[in-house]
Design brief:
The protein is of the alpha/beta class and about 1200 residues long. The chain contains 58 helices and 21 strands. It comes from Eubacterium ventriosum.
Length: about 1200
């Protein structure tokens, strides 16, 4: 058998990745391009952008090593080759794949002017400067420097040249200063030519020192966007159609950028993108090259960077470079050149033949290739690699490859571990997956951000230290690679696939795998059916687990532990659910026999476990008595209970698995332990999954019927042992239970509403239906349409026949309506809890889902002839969709009362409406259910509009012969009536039909009482409405009497006449406040309105308005008024006496104020006022002259005496 190097040749054109800056004029790189359907599709899109003048800013995203840069190299060459001479060979290749794309290239080259290529590498700290440098470099390469405007760097060089030529002394000083910066003039000028920012800053510092302080301000263009715009316009006269910018390695730029300046750089990119998108005749295009989008970085990038990029991202069109898997294999085929005939000896070798044939059965190959294609492209084309080696190379390179190491470098670079290196070193065996591991292992080590890959490498690296043979190493490396790829649907990490990846014969493979398992290096994961590493880095996990288990109690609550981990959760009785168009379910419950025997009522179980039925799995910790279980099940007598009695006890091995699981969970919660043993966290999580899986396997063996390891008991047909062949027959039996227990459940074909808890959206739709029903609106708007409310309305009321109420009613719905009607009947004249109704509807025979109940209740309530009242505890509430929703949630808190209607009650209510109902509430009234509330609301408004005196007086003001007098019995009724409305929140029904009748007639039983109540309310309302008016009239008569006038005389004239008879001294005398106020009011009195006069006099004399009077306020007013009158008249009688009086006279201009006042003995209050005045005067000190102070005091006295 020959060696591979004797007949295999590697096409070395692939050995280096494309570097756009270095290879842009490299003809051999251009000609090495191999067009594929995937790459041509992307190329065609870019060509369309140029032809149609659109999407000029975009980002090309694709994994490393897939040919993105090569494609863009071709694009730039095509757009820059007007005559098509340099790209003719490439165009011919493209034409063989897509004639249409080739024609577009020819159209562009013949009708569109060439584009100037500009390559951005993202290596400069200042992106604005990077764009300028890249543009200048492109102009230099293409002999277009005369197009470029002078930069600050160029201007600096000009100044230095001028100094050297015309100002020798300045130039010598310049040389000396430059040396101080550690540079020669030549080095310094070289840095300026390279546009190094530090050199320019140094020149700006030097310039003022040599030019008498003048700053270096060349006024050149330093803004990238402006510069690109100007040069783009200028290029038109040089035969260019625009500029094409490629930002290469944009992903590396993003990953390595300092976040402090990132926002500034994103503004530069945003400006350039806008410039490109807004360019017209002279186009500017920019394409960013990335290996993944910003979103795919996840938490690897800070939120500041992600947010800053959003402004740019919105201006970019995303272009995905998707290479088909088949194309990838074809690419390998193109690189590895050989004659198939030379490969046949390897294909015919028995183990190789078996591996190649078995490999085709793996989904990653059988799902992609026909057998013929597989043999040609994979078996022959990828030789000398095994099929899974080629698969691994493609997938791993896509995940971790960089430019330094990629699929291309593996195939064509002559370096350690590469294909060409292996071939040249005389290899004779087909290459297994371990060569991929070896080649990329340094990248696995460094890929810390790729958690899965790095962790698998950590585990494999540790496992390799325990390997004792090359075969064991091959298995470890193959497992690591397959776990890194992590595509179980394509290549699960099972025994067969691992062997096919290693290329080992069966005997060697099995032997080596068993050794690895025995050394606890690898383990079989029972849940997933795959092999994984068992990594014990830094700790003996088994010892740690045993220590944790020893700390656990001797006896655990096993049934609770099982329930926590069990995946036997619910069973849906399919036949019943399908027939009744709803979802009922049975819940698995784990109990010890003792717990079950101690359960006295099945209701207790259903209160704890919310389900339609319970499957009770007995956890047997020791041998039990099955007859006791059967006997107790009979006592409970609930068909919804199914008891499973296992044949096997829950023994040590099962208990030990649960103990291990608890130990693992505790270790996973131990932060200190995980910090010390980071590598173990993933293993612990995997171990936890496996333990859960193994525990559930045992549970299924013990409790599922197909395993014949348990007995089933139920009371449906007597307590007998039941036999089931499988889950299907058991499920049918559960349907029979439901059919028996929930026989009359409503059949409503809409599971969005026919359920226990509905979503917010469905609840909103249900509310619309309920409110429409309660408000007695037209319902035909719900009969058509696809809205939620329309479909729910049709499902609950139309299709069930409930809306029509005829013989077409669905049986279950009809019976529910009957139950609601029966409940309403119980509520006639008394409060009954809604819990009574819900217990019936949710319980045996019905098992109604809560979602539909409010609709049915609303329909039946609105059909009542009587008046329904709903109470929240003891508070009446308005009937609405919101209240019915609340009832649905907490029926125990709500009660229904039905107020029976009668002729007497109706007359009573009509009178109240005529007496109290406002026009606003008449309009508001929509349904009879709001009627009582509206009446009481109007009565409250009326009550609150009355004056305080009318609402509070308890002693009659009037004598029997006076207008306004009320018989004592009637007065007592009026007082009782007032008390009814003192509360803030009133229950309308109770007020109207209980409290008012009881207050007025001391009787609220029987309808006959309402006729008398009606008459009394009319009298009471009339009395209370007129009470204040009558009080004012009586007070006016009394005032006239005091001042010596008849009752029929004018009150105003009476007071004026009395005032005119008083002496001047009495009019100028200073009295107490009420007397002074009285005299001032009479002096200025102009109105004849006796109500107004009485109101003002009451306020002046007693300090309170007549509206706010209390029981004794009238007597107090009369007494005070009499005293005021006598006081004033007494001054008149003694006007000649001046003894004991003081007189004050103030003359200002032509007016004089003269007042008499009694000397007042000093008290603490007046003394305090005097001190306050003196302090105030003193505080102003010399700020005010004495004359000013006197003037202020006099003005204050004037105002005081004028009152």
């Amino acid at each position: 058998m020959n060696k591979f190097k004797d007949f295999i040749e590697i096409d070395k054109k692939f050995q280096n990745s494309i570097n756009l800056q270095l290879d842009i004029d490299n003809l051999s790189k251009l000609n090495s391009y191999i067009p594929t359907h995937s790459s041509i599709l992307v190329l065609d899109g870019f060509l369309n952008n140029v032809l149609s003048d659109r999407d000029k800013a975009n980002i090309l995203i694709g994994p490393y090593g897939k040919g993105k840069s090569h494609l863009l190299l071709v694009l730039l060459a095509l757009l820059n080759d007007g005559k098509g001479d340099r790209t003719k060979k490439t165009i011919n290749k493209i034409e063989k794949v897509s004639k249409e794309t080739a024609e577009k290239i020819k159209t562009i080259q013949s009708s569109v002017k060439p584009f100037l290529p500009v390559i951005i590498s993202g290596t400069e700290k200042d992106l604005n400067k990077e764009f300028i440098i890249a543009l200048m470099e492109s102009l230099r390469k293409n002999n277009l420097m005369n197009v470029a405007p002078e930069s600050d760097y160029g201007k600096a060089l000009e100044v230095i040249a001028k100094w050297q030529k015309d100002f020798k002394q300045v130039y010598e000083s310049f040389k000396q200063i430059v040396r101080e910066y550690g540079r020669t003039v030549e080095e310094f000028m070289g840095e300026l030519k390279e546009m190094k920012e530090e050199a320019l800053n140094i020149f700006k510092e030097i310039h003022p020192k040599l030019t008498a302080g003048s700053e270096f301000m060349p006024m050149s263009v330093n803004n990238a966007m402006t510069l690109y715009g100007e040069i783009n316009r200028a290029l038109e006269s040089y035969g260019y159609g625009g500029i094409y910018i490629i930002f290469d390695e944009f992903s590396k730029y993003i990953e390595g950028h300092e976040k402090d300046t990132f926002a500034y750089d994103m503004k530069i990119l945003q400006d350039i993108c806008e410039l490109a998108n807004n360019s017209k005749k002279q186009q500017i295009h920019i394409t960013f090259v990335a290996h993944k989008s910003i979103k795919e970085y996840g938490n690897a990038l800070s939120s500041d960077i992600v947010n800053a990029f959003k402004g740019v991202e919105g201006r970019l069109k995303e272009v995905r470079f998707v290479v088909s898997a088949q194309n990838n294999y074809e690419l390998i085929q193109h690189v590895i050149k050989k004659k198939v005939s030379d490969c046949k000896p390897w294909f015919q070798e028995q183990n190789n033949k078996e591996i190649i044939e078995e490999s085709y059965k793996i989904p990653c190959f059988s799902g992609l290739f026909t057998e013929k294609e597989y043999k040609k492209i994979v078996m022959e084309g990828c030789f000398p690699m095994l099929p899974l080696t080629a698969y691994a190379l493609l997938n791993i390179s896509e995940k971790v490859a960089q430019n330094e190491r990629s699929i291309f470098t593996f195939l064509a670079n002559d370096e350690k571990g590469s294909l060409i290196n292996i071939v040249e070193n005389g290899s004779e065996e087909l290459l297994s997956v371990d060569v991929v591991y070896d080649y990329f292992q340094n990248m696995f080590r460094d890929s810390i951000s790729l958690t899965n890959i790095h962790n698998e490498w950590l585990k494999a690296d540790y496992a390799l230290t325990k390997a004792e043979s090359l075969n064991e190493e091959k298995i470890i490396k193959a497992m690591a690679i397959l776990h890194m790829i992590n595509r179980n649907e394509e290549v699960p990490v099972r025994k067969t696939e691992i062997r096919l990846a290693t290329g080992l014969n069966m005997a060697d493979f099995v032997s080596s795998l068993e050794k690895l398992e025995s050394k606890n290096i690898v383990t079989y994961r029972s849940k997933l059916g795959v092999y994984a590493f068992k990594n014990n880095v830094g700790v003996n996990l088994d010892n740690q687990m045993n220590n944790m288990i020893e700390k656990q109690p001797l006896s655990l609550n096993w049934q609770e532990e099982i329930a926590t981990v069990s995946e036997l959760d619910y069973v849906l009785p399919k036949k019943y659910n399908q027939e009744y168009t709803m979802t009922r379910y049975f819940k698995y419950v784990y109990m010890t026999p003792e717990q079950f025997l101690n359960t006295s009522k099945s209701e207790y179980l259903f209160e704890t476990y919310k389900a339609d039925g319970l499957i009770i799995c007995l956890v047997m910790l020791k041998d039990g008595d099955v007859n006791r279980i059967k006997e107790h099940l009979k006592e409970l007598n609930d068909n919804r209970l199914v008891v499973i009695y296992p044949d096997k006890i829950f023994g040590f091995s099962e208990q030990q698995n649960i103990r291990k699981l608890k130990a693992v969970e505790k270790l996973l919660k131990d932060k200190d332990f995980l910090e010390e043993n980071k590598v173990l966290q993933q293993e612990l999580e995997i171990y936890k999954e496996d333990l859960i899986f193994e525990i559930n396997v045992e549970l299924e063996k013990s409790y599922l019927p197909e395993n014949n390891r348990c007995k089933y008991f139920n009371t449906l047909n007597g307590v007998t042992e039941l036999c089931f062949e499988n889950q299907i027959s058991f499920n049918r039996f559960l349907s029979e239970i439901c059919l028996s227990y929930y026989e009359y459940a409503p059949k409503i074909n809409n599971e969005l509403i026919n359920r226990k808890s509905v979503s917010a959206q469905i609840k909103k739709a249900r509310n619309l239906i309920i409110d429409a029903i309660l408000n007695e609106e037209e319902l035909n708007r719900f009969e058509k349409g696809t809205s939620s409310e329309a479909t729910i309305f049709r499902a609950t009321l139309m299709h069930t026949g409930i809306l029509k109420g005829d013989s077409s009613e669905e049986e279950g719905c009809r019976r529910i309506i009957e139950e609601i009607d029966a409940f309403i009947g119980q509520c006639a004249g008394k409060k009954v809890s809604f819990q009574v109704l819900y217990n019936k509807l949710l319980g045996k025979d019905f098992g109604t889902r809560k979602g539909v109940i409010p609709i049915f209740i609303a329909k039946e309530i609105i059909n009542l002839q009587d008046t329904p009242i709903i109470y929240l505890q003891n508070k009446e509430v308005e009937i609405s969709s919101s209240i019915l929703n609340n009832i649905n949630e907490k029926p125990q808190d709500y009660y229904l009362f039905i107020e029976k209607e009668s002729i007497e009650k109706e007359k009573y209510l009509k009178v109240l409406e005529e007496l109290f109902l406002s026009e606003e509430l008449r309009k508001k009234q929509k349904s009879k259910m709001q009627r009582l509330n509206n009446i009481v609301e109007s009565m409250q408004r009326w009550y609150r509009s009355l004056d305080q005196y009318t609402l509070t007086f308890t002693k009659q003001l009037f004598e029997e012969n006076e207008q306004g007098y009320l018989e004592e019995d009637a007065f007592e009724r009026m007082c009782s009536f007032r008390k009814v409305f003192k509360g803030i929140e009133l229950n309308p029904r109770e007020v109207l039909f209980e409290k008012i009748p009881k207050a007025i007639c001391h009787d609220n039983s029987g309808d006959a009482v309402f006729e008398n109540v009606t008459l009394q309310i009319e009298e009471i309302k009339k009395y209370m409405d007129n009470n204040l008016v009558n009080a004012k009239k009586k007070t006016a008569v009394q005032v006239k009497s005091i001042f010596g006038a008849r009752a029929d005389e004018s009150l105003s004239a009476c007071l004026k006449n009395w005032y005119s008879k008083q002496s001047e001294k009495s009019k100028s005398h200073i009295y107490a406040e009420n007397i002074t106020g009285f005299m001032t009011y009479i002096e200025k009195l102009t109105t004849n309105d006796e109500d107004e006069i009485v109101s003002r006099l009451c306020k002046i004399i007693t300090g309170i308005y007549i509206n706010d009077w209390k029981n004794d306020s009238y007597e107090r007013f009369v007494e005070e008024l009499t005293y005021v009158k006598n006081t004033i008249q007494s001054i008149k009688e003694s006007e000649q006496s001046t003894e004991g009086e003081n007189k004050i006279s103030i003359k200002t201009g032509e007016s004089t104020i003269e007042r008499f006042f009694e000397p007042d003995s000093d008290d603490s209050t007046s003394y305090f006022l005097q001190n306050a005045i003196e302090d105030a005067l003193e505080e102003f000190g010399d700020t005010l002259e004495l004359n000013q102070k006197v003037s202020v005091l006099v003005k204050a006295l004037e105002e005081l005496l004028s009152k």
